[in-house]
Amino acid sequence: MTTLKTTLRTALKRTGYVALACGLPLAAGLQAQTYSSSNVSYTPQYNSQSNPQYNAPNPQYNGSYSYSQNQYQQPVTPPRYKGEGWGKHFVFEGGGGVTAPAAGTQKFANTGFNVLLGGGLRFNDRLSLLAEWNFNRMGVPTNLAISTAQVPGGNEHIWTAMLNPKFDYIRGGRVDGYVIGGGGFSRQLTTFTAPVIVPCGYGYGYGYGYGYGYGGCSGSVNVAHESSNQGMFDVGTGVEFRLSSYSRFKLFVEGRYERFYTPKSNLPPGYNAALVPVIIGVRW
Question: What is the distance between the alpha carbons of residues 157 and 74, in angstroms, rounded to a whole number?
Fold first, then answer.
């Protein structure tokens, strides 16, 4: 009897194992079939043929969206002026300012004024080549004029013809920073003057109390002069202010160092004269 129970128990266990082994794949297959059937059953709900109302375009909303894009488009910053046609390659300038003597030239000249005129070619947005004419006028110190020519005063004229490359190292909005430098030819002329009395009429507004006597006005006469021709070089930096984004006109402020290879002499402007002109002007 015990042997029969044992045999029956063993048979039931083996039967259960076989059923479990066969049932797991069957259950997995049924689950996959159910998931596939679920996907298929919902597919027709989103098909454009079975639901044409969701597939048809709506002109009203399309038009509103397009208008909204144009309406809320952000403004664009206007571009910098770069010139048009052949004229963009030409540059013109004019200005003037104060000229101060530098280094040893301070003994030979007083502070004066300058005038600058020029023109040239613009190769691109940064590089230009300028041909410039610069005129500097200064006074002779009184003690030097007395010791040299026994007169109380005089004046110095130095003009230059230069060829100067100009490079813009800063390009930002309406403000540019640049360096400029080059060299060329210069001529200096120093004149010593003495005061004199010259006739003047009442119609010129002088009258009594002006000049050196009745009907006389103060003037000057050239007593002596000396001159020289020499080479020179200059280097400087400046800032340009564009008047508007679409304008070629620019205001500029710059300072330069000019060195002249003047001969050795006790007369103005001295040996290897040096000047520092500060110039305010316009370029276009």
Answer: 57
Peptide bond preceding 269: is omega within 30 degrees of 0, i.e. cis?
A: yes
Tokens encoding 42: 């919902």
Q: In the chain, which ranges are continuous DSSP H helix?
A: 2-42, 52-55, 59-71, 142-149
Nearest to 240 by CA among 181, 201, 197, 282: 282
In a domain, 150, yes or no: yes
Q: Which residue in 146, 156, 164 sits closest to 228, CA to CA?
A: 156
Higher pLDDT, 44 or 17: 17
- Spatial CB neighbours of 113, under 8 Å, sequence gap ≥ 6: 96, 97, 98, 99, 136, 137
Q: Looking at residue 136, what is its pLDDT? A: 98
Beta-ladder partners of 232 = 184, 260
Interatomic CA distance for residues 182 and 169, integer angstroms: 17
Segment 32-38 long-range contacts (CB within 8 Å, at least 24 positions apart)? none
Predicted confidence (pLDDT) per residue in 186-214, tens digit = 999 999 998 888 776 544 444 444 444 45
Q: Which two tokens stand for residue 218?
A: 């103060």
What DSSP character marks residue 203?
G
Query: Which tokens go with 194?
Result: 């003495």
Number of domains in the chain: 1
- Quote the DSSP letter at residue 121: E
> In a 3-state reduction of DSSP, which class is residue 88?
helix
38, two tokens = 């679920």
pLDDT value of residue 73? 57
Domain region containing 168: 89-283
Flag whether 185 is in a domain.
Answer: yes
